[in-house]
Structures are given as C-alpha cells and as structure tokens.
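ugh ok fine here u go
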Amino acid sequence: MECILKTDKLTKTYGSQTVVNNVSLSVEQGDIYGFVGKNGAGKTTFIRMVLGLTRPTSGTFSLFSDMDISSARKRTGSLIESPALYTNMSALENIRMCCTILGENKNQAEEILKIVDLSDTGKKKAGNFSLGMKQRLGIGMALVGNPDFLILDEPINGLDPTGIAEVRELILHLKNDQGKTIFVSSHYLGELEKIATRYGIIAKGKLVEELTSEELSAKCGVQTLLKTDNPEKAAELVRNLLKTENVEIRKDGTVILSEPVENIGKLTNELFTNGIVVAGITTSDNNSEKYFIDRMDGA
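structure:
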C-alpha cells in the first residue's frame, strides 16, 4: 500500500511558542484519516505546512512516497478552514474560474458539480448558498484536476445536521466510489467516528496517539481497571495470563485491560500469588468520545 503522506518530527514555532511539536504520522492509500484535536491544538498549522503555505521550523515530510514535491502537490486538493468563493458567481462559474487559475480543462466543471450534488443550482449566486452548499462547493473546487489526495480542514464546522450529513456522505462517496485518500481534521468526534479508517490525536501540538478504527473499537468496549503497587509487573502478568496485548498503563499507574474478564477472582488471586498488592479492580464501559477527550487533555 502506497504511503500518501509521511511526516517526521514536523515542528512549527512562532517565537517562543511551539504550535506543532515533533509530529510524525503516516497516511496510507485509501485512508480516511481523522486528525482529531481541540481548537488551537495545531491541526491547521500542520496542514498549512504540508500544503506549503507555511515553512516548517524543523522536521520533514513527503507526499506520495518521496515524489517530487511540486508533482505531488498537483495530485493533492485541499479545503482549508472556509472555502474562498466568488460570491457573485454561480457554482459552475466558480469551478470554471478555479480551473482557469490552476490551468485545468474547464470541461470537468459539470462533472464536479454532479459529484458534490450542486448541478441543480443553476445561476444562483454562491453568496446566496447555505453554509453546507458552500462547503460542498469548496470541496468541489478542491477536486479540480482530479487529485488523488484530499486534505479537508474542519469541513463540517458550523454546519447544521443536514449540512453535516451531506458533507459526510460526500466524503464517503469520494473514498468509496472515486478512490480518493482523504485527510480530514475535526473536533467533531462523533462524526469522524462514522467515516474515519484511521486516527491521529493531537494535543497541544503533539501527536499523542495513532490508531485504526478497529483499534479504537477494541479500546472503547468494556474495560477492566487495576490499581496495584506494581503496574509494570501487573500488566505483564495480565498479558501472559489472558494471552492478550490489549493492556496499557496510564500515567497515573492504572493498568487498563481493554476487554472484559470472565473470572476476576482468578486474576486477583494470580496477582496476589505473584506478590502484587491489588488496591482496586473495577470494570467500566468506555466510549470513543471519552477516549478522545482523555487523550486530548493529555490523560
């Protein structure tokens, strides 16, 4: 599988403030990569570096497995923050103008309007569009030149439920039917969970975790939480006893087993036999929103 985007310790500082801090991530062909973080976490600055809109302070990145960066960016379309539309023009005129600016054939404009479901807008000016329609038109402009890779920065921000659903279905269509690889940043956790195949969680400029949708599902089911006097030894014993790798240790020393335990008594006895004092053992139903928030808060 081709690596579409790979960053290595990408960093951006403004004076004494580090906005993006040593971020290393990878986006594989066919991904819908959900870049999750609070407002101000560094998502847009990261994207602007990848698109060449601002220079990294340090670190490197590559697009399409070290392809020449100019050629790679021709295979990349983007929508950053809000779309830059000509409000006195129709949707078709906006797409054609974008084709002219990018040196692309204007004949693709009608097909792009079909893809983003704006073919029926006729001569209506973009300034009179709903916010959802404007976002879809912005995505349409990102599709000029038929790029293989799309970078969408907060594409559903401020939309009503109908607009959110329309953009969500468009993103899924672009991946499943158009074969696009998509990098989408957002703080709308519930919506990302409906479309993303992989996630990168960023907090205060740092990438705190990358995981697949399958790994997220495993982590967000029933959890067993152990408080012991020796977290490292307890975690290793749990792995060996239950033959699982779904074990991690929080910063506070809590051992988390991301699956239910059939015989808690047997597990407790085994820990005691190995000289581990168990101060507490509980089960909880985790959910993805709590999981993301814990990591975005640096838990």
